[in-house]
TrEMBL record:
InterPro entries per record: CHLI-like (IPR045006), MCM_dom (IPR001208), Mg_chelat-rel (IPR004482), Mg_chelat-rel_C (IPR025158), Mg_chelatse_chII-like_cat_dom (IPR000523), P-loop_NTPase (IPR027417), Ribosomal_Su5_D2-typ_SF (IPR020568), Ribsml_uS5_D2-typ_fold_subgr (IPR014721)
Any one Pfam family match given in the protein's UniProt record, by short name: ChlI
Record bears the keyword Nucleotide-binding: yes
Domain of life from the UniProt record: Bacteria
Listed transmembrane segments: none
Protein name per Swiss-Prot or TrEMBL: YifB family Mg chelatase-like AAA ATPase
Domain Magnesium chelatase ChlI-like catalytic: start-end pairs: 189-386
Keywords tagged on the record: ATP-binding, Nucleotide-binding
SUPFAM superfamilies: P-loop containing nucleoside triphosphate hydrolases, Ribosomal protein S5 domain 2-like
Keyword match ATP-binding: yes
Domain Mg chelatase-related protein C-terminal residue range list: 397-491
Length: 498
């Protein structure tokens, strides 16, 4: 008679429930695991055998078959160690459990029968809840992460004996439910940046519509300072966004204490590889663009990144998601991030510049036309003279900037809620036609710009999206001529510098 235990595996940021079926037959002692398990799953045979013996139980002699169903889904990692071990103990009648079907078991076993922490317990529990499971047995180190889900009964265990005690006795579930009492606090503020009024205005527009942004100018004048402070002006992260971000961080093993309460800000070094940026590898893990989901991806010294790394951003910037395919399978990760790049306009990094026009053009050509077409704003960060630097006049604060941005975001969210998007930067062409309504003067100026600069349809829609955001900041229904001109000014970098 076969024994069935409920387990789970990960695929991307989603859990998949797995039935672990154990059958022990007469014959030469063998232990086989079938059902498309990866190397880590196959190696669980040795871990399970040692854990059972070191826990004081007998490892049965016979032909043991562990089937992981459904067999057409690849199983990865060490999550199935615990259900395989419990299934063998049940099949060999060393323990007796009547209500095993009520539990979903997760955990990696050490050779000493201890339970080690696992990655991705949060998305697995969410999947379990959807499949009508209420009771979850998992490693003690994962109890804080698992307690985020209020409706789940969590039974954290330190070793195999604790698991058997939970299954055979009436043990109360873990009571300390997660409370997210964190406050969003920042130690930096836009008021610390002197001058740069036009750049700050552009940052407000970019943050209000979730538009991609490049800051350019001489070295050492505040590009990185501006980028570092952009999270301080973005709207507070919602519960749904926070939960989605936390799921991603749970999968990669970067779960901290609770739900992510700040929008992610990722700042990878320019030596990052394609896999580090977009994700992939042997286990198809998420990369920086997914870890920046619902937040900011900042590429400092953007032109120092390898061209192939920058080019792989083109599809995620357009689709707000990334699909990773290998011979072992295919996963899709969300990547709805705000891209911020910072770059110098020449390689010499001197003031004044000593580069020739040829050297400047060659340096800037690292950014391809198709990639630049996907950037909404290009903001010049200018050199500040001594008098302005010593000026003690009050600078606009992050709180003041955020207040303006929140008003514009509320307008966009109400307008676009039926499409399940929240910002103008996410609109497709059909939405642009429907909601980017111009007055007569605006129609004439956009026609003139389109004809004179021979721009692509993507660039045309970018200008309209930007204009829509500028109008939203002023709380106007129609886009005016001034909105179009301001939006076009933010894209002059493509025509004048490159």
């Amino acid at each position: 008679m076969a024994i069935k235990i409920n387990g789970a595996t990960l695929r991307g940021i989603h859990g998949h429930c797995v039935s672990v079926e154990i059958h022990i037959a007469r014959g030469l002692p063998t232990f086989n695991i079938v059902g498309m398990g990866d190397t880590a799953v196959k190696e669980s045979k040795d871990r399970v055998r040692a854990a059972i013996l070191n826990a004081g139980f007998q490892f049965p002699l016979g032909k043991i078959t562990a089937n992981l169903a459904p067999a057409d889904i690849k199983k990865e990692g060490t999550l199935l160690d615990l259900p395989i071990a419990i299934g063998i103990l049940l099949a060999s009648k060393q323990i007796n459990i009547k209500n095993i079907d009520e539990y979903l078991l997760l955990g990696e076993l050490s050779l000493l029968s201890e339970l080690r922490s696992i990655k991705g317990s949060l998305p697995i529990i969410m999947e379990g809840i959807e499949n009508n499971f209420k009771k979850f047995i998992l490693p003690n180190d994962n109890k804080k992460e698992a307690s985020i889900i209020d409706s789940a009964n969590i039974y954290p265990c330190k070793n195999l004996h604790d698991v058997i005690e939970v299954l055979t006795k009436r043990i109360e579930p873990y009571k300390k439910k997660f409370m997210n009492n964190y406050k969003e606090e920042y130690t930096i503020d836009f008021s610390e940046i002197i001058g740069q009024h036009s750049a700050k205005r552009g940052v407000i527009v970019a943050a209000a519509g979730n538009h991609n942004l490049i800051l350019f100018g001489p070295p050492g004048i505040g590009k990185s300072m501006i980028a570092d402070r952009i999270p301080t002006i973005l709207p507070k992260i919602s519960y749904e966004e926070s939960l989605e971000c936390t799921r991603i961080y749970s999968v990669v093993g970067e779960f901290k204490e609770g739900l992510i309460y700040k929008r992610p800000f990722r700042n990878p070094h320019h030596t990052a590889t394609k896999i580090a940026m977009v994700g992939g590898g042997a286990n198809l893990m998420p990369g920086e663009i997914s870890l920046a989901h619902n937040g900011v991806l900042f590429l400092d010294e953007m032109l120092e990144f390898k061209r192939e790394v920058l080019e792989c951003l083109r599809q995620p910037l357009e689709n707000r998601s990334i699909q990773i395919s290998k011979s072992t399978g295919k996963v899709e990760y969300p990547s709805n991030f705000m891209l911020i790049g910072a770059l110098n306009t020449c390689p010499c990094s001197k003031l004044p510049c000593t580069c020739s026009e040829y050297e400047k053009n060659r340096y800037l050509k690292k950014l391809s036309g198709p990639l630049l077409d996907r950037i909404d704003l290009f903001l010049s960060v200018d050199y500040i003279d001594y008098d302005n630097m010593k000026n003690n006049s009050k600078q606009i604060s992050s709180a003041e900037m955020r207040e303006k941005i929140n008003i514009a975001r509320e307008i966009q969210s109400e307008r676009l809620k039926k499409y399940k998007i929240q910002t103008n930067g996410e609109m497709d062409m059909s939405m642009v036609k429907k909601y980017c309504i111009l007055d007569n003067a605006g129609e004439k100026i956009i026609e003139k710009i389109y004809k004179n600069y021979s721009m692509s349809l993507r660039a045309y829609s970018k200008i309209l999206k930007l204009s829509r955001t500028i109008a939203d900041l002023e709380e106007r229904d129609r886009i005016s001529e001034g909105d179009i001109i301001e939006a076009f000014q933010y894209r002059r970098f493509i025509n004048e510098v490159i």
